TrEMBL record:
<protein>
    <recommendedName>
        <fullName>Ketoreductase domain-containing protein</fullName>
    </recommendedName>
</protein>
<dbReference type="InterPro" id="IPR057326">
    <property type="entry name" value="KR_dom"/>
</dbReference>
<dbReference type="Pfam" id="PF13561">
    <property type="entry name" value="adh_short_C2"/>
</dbReference>
<feature type="domain" description="Ketoreductase">
    <location>
        <begin position="9"/>
        <end position="193"/>
    </location>
</feature>
<dbReference type="GO" id="GO:0016616">
    <property type="term" value="F:oxidoreductase activity, acting on the CH-OH group of donors, NAD or NADP as acceptor"/>
</dbReference>
<dbReference type="InterPro" id="IPR036291">
    <property type="entry name" value="NAD(P)-bd_dom_sf"/>
</dbReference>
<comment type="similarity">
    <text>Belongs to the short-chain dehydrogenases/reductases (SDR) family.</text>
</comment>
<keyword id="KW-0560">Oxidoreductase</keyword>
<dbReference type="InterPro" id="IPR020904">
    <property type="entry name" value="Sc_DH/Rdtase_CS"/>
</dbReference>
<dbReference type="InterPro" id="IPR002347">
    <property type="entry name" value="SDR_fam"/>
</dbReference>
């Protein structure tokens, strides 16, 4: 067997209907996984399934709002029923923060960043643990951000929520190791997705990020996140847990 073969492993990807999540769903499907796309905009999720493969029986869309425990548990039930179990879960759904100074951000905006990024990851993993334990092994992957590591003015909400995800994953990796469930994060750098449309429109900021801060001198494409996640989900990643893989074009050393 190929080390990276996913061989019908059922993997749910939250926020899999566009951007990084879509690239991950498509990549996992290419390597043989059964993929479940879980997001709020169901029509977009169905279009994403068609874009992955219009006639594949290894891809499904389920409606899911990660901020709502009921919605998450219904989505996971549908996913398991369809796939006949669950092997992996990628907590990718995320939103950027309010984008304003801490002394100006209001509590509602602050909580919104936490509800989707940190609590959404917690809700997602909570729903995944039972079926993964039943499977006797499994893989959880969360999507953190460079913002968890580097000071990011005007994004205290997003930065703290993403740093929280890393703490959650380290603790959970210890908790779930006896169940043969590996828990890791990926930490993307600047990725060219709709989340960054506003930054891309600001040519000066867009150019200065890649020229001054990224040794590889460019933004990443969403597809460049796929390899790390296939590795973590596959036999190749069997001894890897409690870690964060930085995929940032060298930003952290630049
Ligand atoms: P996008 O804005 O392109 O996509 C976000 C995805 O999350 C959409 O599929 C959206 O679908 C889904 N989503 C948002 N809120 C919810 C919710 N409450 N419940 C379920 N799904 C939800 O973002 P990216 O692809 O750029 O980002 C993906 C992840 O990567 C995020 O966690 C982000 O923080 C992280 N990241 C991104 C970076 C970048 O530069 N782009 C850098 C570092 C990290 P829908 O609206 O249908 O629910």
């Amino acid at each position: 067997m190929n080390l990276f073969d996913l061989d019908n492993r059922a993997v749910i990807v939250t926020g899999g209907n566009r951007g990084i999540g879509f690239a991950l769903a498509k990549g996992l499907h290419q390597y043989g996984a059964k993929v479940i796309i879980a997001a709020r905009d169901h029509a977009r999720s169905q279009r994403a399934c068609d874009a992955i493969s219009p006639d594949s029986d290894r891809v499904l869309a389920v409606k899911c709002d990660v901020t709502c425990t009921k919605s998450v548990s219904v989505a996971f039930e549908q996913a398991q029923e369809w796939a006949g179990g669950l092997y992996g879960c990628i907590a990718n759904a995320g939103v950027r923060g309010a984008g304003c100074a801490l002394d100006e951000v209001n509590a509602t905006a602050w909580r919104a960043a936490f509800n989707t990024n940190l609590e959404g990851t917690m809700n997602t993993f909570q729903a995944a643990i039972k079926p993964l334990k039943a499977q006797g092994e499994g893989r959880l992957v969360a999507v953190s951000s460079l913002a968890a590591l580097h000071g990011n003015a005007l994004f205290t909400d997003y930065s703290s929520a993403k740093a929280g995800i890393e703490g959650l994953c380290r603790a959970l990796a210890i908790e779930l190791a006896p169940h043969k469930i590996n828990v890791n994060c990926i930490m993307p750098g600047w990725v060219d997705t709709e989340m960054n449309t506003d930054i891309k429109q600001d040519r000066r900021q867009f150019e200065s990020i890649k020229r001054l801060r990224v040794p590889l001198k460019r933004w990443a494409s969403a597809e460049e996140m796929v390899g790390a996640v296939v590795y973590l989900m596959s036999g190749a990643g069997s001894y890897h847990t409690g870690d964060t893989l930085r995929i940032d074009g060298g930003y952290h050393i630049g």
